[in-house]
What does this fold into?
Amino acid sequence: MDNQDADSIPLQAERSARQNRPRVLPSSRRGRKTYERIFEATAELAAELGFEGVNTNLVASRAGVNIASLYRYFPNKQAIFAAISERLAANFKAEIKGLVAQIDAGRPWREAVADGMRLAAERRLNSPGERSIRIAIRLSPELQELDRLETNAVSAMLADLMMRRSGAEPERAMLAARVAIEMAAAILDLLLNEPTADAKILAAEASDAFIRYLAPLMEEPVSAVQPALIA
It folds into this structure.
C-alpha cells in the first residue's frame, strides 16, 4: 500500500461514517419503543453471533418489528451499531465529566481514576451489549472512526484538567491524555476476548498504568516534569 492509499483510509472511513447514520430519530412514543427494541435486539444478536453474523433481517425479527420499520430509521446494520456506539460514548463522556468535576472539587484524582477503571471493567465484563459493540469496533472502519472521535473528546477533557493542574501546554497535555486513555483501554479490552479474566486485577493494572504515566502532569508543575515521560 502506498502513502496515498494509506492516507485515504481515514477519509474513506469518515465518509462512510457520515453515510451510515440513522435516517431519522423517533419523535413518537411508539417510535422510541421501536428504536429501543432495535438497539436491544442488535446487542443481543451481536453477543450471540458476532458482528459479522448480524444482519437487518435478523434484527427486525428479534426486535419484533417489520423490516420496513427498521429501514425507516436505519439504512443498514452499520448505522445501528454506530448509533449504539454513540450512545455508549455519550454515557462514557458523561461519566468522565462527572469524575473530572469531582477532582476539581477536591477528590483525590488517583481515587477517581481507580473508580472509573473499575466501572469500565465491569461494563466490559457484565454488559454483553457493550462487549459486542467494542468487538465490532475492531472490525468496522466506520466504527473505528467513531471510536477515534470519542477518544479525542474524552482526551480533551482530561487534557484540560492537566493544563489547569500543572500548566502543561495544550498539545503536550492532549498527547499525554490520548496515550493514557488508549493504554488503559487496551488493558481493559483483554476482558473482551478473555471474559474469565479477573476484572478487579485488570482494573487495578489499568489504573496503575494510567496513574504512573500521568502523575507528572497531574501532581507537579510543568517545569518539573521530565520531558522524556511524555515524548
User: Anything to note?
Assistant: Residues 224-231 have pLDDT under 50 and may be disordered. The first helix runs from residue 3 to 19. The chain is about 80% helix and 0% strand. Residues 50 and 132 are 7 Å apart (CA to CA).
